[in-house]
Amino acid sequence: MSDRAENLILALPGLLLLAVAFFVPIAQMLLLSVQGEEGLTLANFTRFLGDPYYLGVLWRTVRLSLLITAICALIGFPLAYIMARIGPRMRLWLIVLVILPLMTSVVVRTFGWMVLLGRSGLVPDILRSLGLAGRNFSIMQTESAIVIGMVQVLLPFMTLSILGVVSRIDTRLEEAARTMGCGFGATLRTVVLPLALPGIVAGSLLCFTLSASSFVTPNLLGGSRIQVLAASIYRSVTQTLDWPFAAAQAVILFVGVLLILVPYARLGGGTR
Question: What is the mean pLDDT of the segment spanning 215-232?
Answer without folding.
Answer: 87
